[in-house]
């Protein structure tokens, strides 16, 4: 597979009479976008707001963030099996509005949601603060089941991203990124596989792969380009800090780094998607199958990026133990929940074989954030979402919260702002 990403740089977003791109500005027809959202009769209200980097805006509570794109050539459509027709993605040309995103906001579905600050100290924790956000503010009809509400939000966000992406279909890109797994003739390079773990615990902790609920999958080997071209869609309300939004999947940092090093100091042999389960039986089945696949393709090393925390820590450790016992060197990427003082046990599970672990931060770290001039959504939800508490909204309208409330603050794909330093 050869995937070309045509990057159209977006430096500003404005409302306009039509949805077009001119001089690196995305103009959005607000009425058309609201009409698109109102097509789902499970939503009672719909509005669109804009949030640009540097503005005193707080967006809360956020469900998903999606990068607008459009398929120009090649098989498949964006987000196949959900809003696009079924077909294998990962080849041809896809144009990308780099610097723009759709963010979906509305009444809380599940408590593990979060926020984005567009300026101030909170913005330093989230990569989405540097993006021009088209914010869909959506509310459900009365009495709607939470799972139906989540689906309505998810599908409406994807449709909005497709709608905006069509504005760049015929535009010449500013840059062209090419992703192709070229043959590696140097047999001394280690064969490395990447395991992307997908939340699939139910209870609003779900991920979609080619339109299929990930809990129904056995671990699956795929080309990395499929991930970067819309095969995986977020549908979960896990804590905002380590939730892999759809934007994260489309821009998977681990895949990009493995591509950068492919043929130089390693041989990138593919991606295995595996699910994160609730019962011990399901954990055993998936980790057995995934480790077997890694062995069958002859991998020397594996990188596993976790999503979520707590229960998924057990899946992570089971995968690590089984692959190390096969002789496969395994590296884990995870965040920590070490308490507000950093002194508690970081992970819910551990095995001796987990001797190469990359931490992307302690999600329990507390920050105090100033008030913002404009709130998109509902500020009081900060006292309900994970990492917030009664009293999180200060008298001035600011926030005192754990960083797990901030979208992408400890992303376990390495797509974040935190770094570690040795002393």
What does this protein structure show overall?
With 423 residues, this protein is an alpha/beta fold. It has one domain. Helices cover 18% and strands 33% of the residues. The protein has helices spanning 30-37, 146-165, 224-227, 246-250, 253-261, 280-296, 311-325, and strands at 2-9, 12-15, 20-22, 25-28, 43-51, 57-66, 69-71, 92-98, 100-106, 114-117, 132-140, 175-180, 191-199, 205-209, 212-213, 220-222, 232-236, 267-276, 301-305, 329-336, 357-362, 366-369, 374-377, 399-402. Strands 5, 6, 9, 10, 11 and 23 form a six-stranded mixed beta sheet that branches. Strand 14 and strand 15 (212-213) form a beta hairpin. Helix 6 runs parallel beside helix 7. The longest helix is centred in the middle third of the chain and has 20 residues, at 146-165. 52% of the residues are buried. The model has no long low-confidence stretch (mean pLDDT 95).
What coarse outline follows from CA principal-axis ratios? globular
Number of domains: 1
Q: What radius of gyration results from the CA coordinates?
A: 21 Å
Instruction: Give the count of helical stretches.
Output: 7
Helix/strand/pairing category? alpha/beta
As a percent range, the share of strand residues is: 25-35%
Q: What is the count of β-strands?
A: 24
The span between the termini is: 44 Å
How much helical structure, as a percent, in the residues?
10-25%
Largest sheet: 6 strands, mixed
Q: Indicate the low-confidence ranges by residue numbers.
A: none
